[in-house]
Amino acid sequence: MPTPNPNGGMVPPPKTSARAWLALLGASLALFCTVGFLNAFGVFQKYYTTYLHGDHRSSSDISWIGSLSIFLLYAGSPFGGVLVDRIGPTIPLCVGSVGLLLALFMTSLCTQYWQLMLAQSLLLGVSASLVFCPPLGVVLRHMPHRRGLAMGLTIGGSSIGGIVWPITLQQLLNKDQVSFGWTIRIVAFIMMPLLAIACFTVVEPAKTPSPVSATTPEVQKAPDSLNGNVTDVSSEKEEKKQKSDGTKDFLKKPTYMLLCAGLALAYLGLFTPLFYISTYAIAHGQATPTAFYLLSAINASSFFGRVVPGHLADTVGHYNLLTIFTFVSGLVGFTWTKATSLAGLVVWGLAYGFSSGAVMSLQNACAGKIAPPQHQGLAVGCLMGCLSIAALIGTPISGQILDHSGYLALSMWTGATLMAGGAVIGLSRFMTSPKLTAVF
């Protein structure tokens, strides 16, 4: 969007460089291999419940494998955010990529529940956090003028992963009868070149001269009372201002804290349909392959939900749309059990995928919006750290609700947590700008 020029007229938005688009591509691939793969856990939920060797576990027990990896992905994000702000993205990305591939190869050898907890939960989650967070901070620094669209396209990579990985796993495990071990190894071999591209393309933006020095030809000077030298007063003021702007005071702002709290509430139920839509469909008479394709349908719709609202948010306000779509996700969550036919399940899945995808896309844009450029990684990382506890306990709670009270109660849990989260996010938005028509 054009911005006002102090000297009159409008300043056109800065152009997006090829380097920025390459960084966005690499970031999308990084999320394709991390969050996208975790979005396919519904396939594992069903497979482990049926085929876990010599270990009969409840739905809640199995869900801990996926929820712990998601928890570690988010819990490690503050560390990843600090790393990318201090040393850049390359080292965290390379270390995380190696750990992620190692976790997959170890998972391919697992036959017991505790082995899966170590490999697919612990090692994969920790490694994925180093691949997940650094690209987000880098992309926000590349495209501060188009943060909604940039985050939508970046997070959209996880949606594409959520389409591809369930279909891949379903085809290999059930249709082609490939062994579990070789299925996971094939996944690892697919990820290898994608992670390599991410490591090479996600780089910091090129440094440019300070706009202050370029547009201010005259410098205020004052004599140094001690030695008679001339001191550059304006440069000292600018340096102090930059240091002040570079502080982490944004972490203490009510807007940021309420944003974190609201999203944490929403995350208690946000992943529930991704974990249980396949088992719900099978319980209502759908064939197993059809049930897994529903998971891909949700993620396909989620891609458009991450890109389209993200692009619109650059015009109408990131907090505005985040509040709206969190409420909409809650409303859709309440109607889950009304979808009993295949057509109903498809329509419900597309609606939930679109609305929940917007939430996942806009959250990072909102966090980065109130942070200085040099702390974009920290802003996103701390937000993810706050969400980690909710991601850890949300789906196991859902499993307990399902085992004891059924899918209607699960639907109420999903809708209620999202609606409560939307209310707190709305309060966060009005703390900054109480006008209903404000673009924020």
From TrEMBL:
The biased composition feature labelled Basic and acidic residues covers 234-247
Region entry Disordered, spans: 209-247
Entry membrane topology = Multi-pass membrane protein
- The portions of this protein that span the membrane are 21-44, 64-84, 91-114, 120-140, 149-168, 180-203, 256-278, 290-307, 319-336, 342-366, 378-401, 407-427
Major facilitator superfamily (MFS) profile domain: from which residue to which, for each copy? 19-440
**InterPro entries per UniProt:** MFS, MFS_dom, MFS_trans_sf, Proton-linked_MCT
- Which UniProt keywords are present, listed alphabetically? Membrane, Transmembrane, Transmembrane helix
- Which SUPFAM superfamilies does the entry mention? MFS general substrate transporter
UniProt subcellular location? Membrane
Please state the protein's primary subcellular location: membrane
Give the record's family classification: Belongs to the major facilitator superfamily. Monocarboxylate porter (TC 2.A.1.13) family.
Q: What is this protein called?
A: MFS transporter
Taxonomic classification: Eukaryota, Fungi, Dikarya, Ascomycota, Pezizomycotina
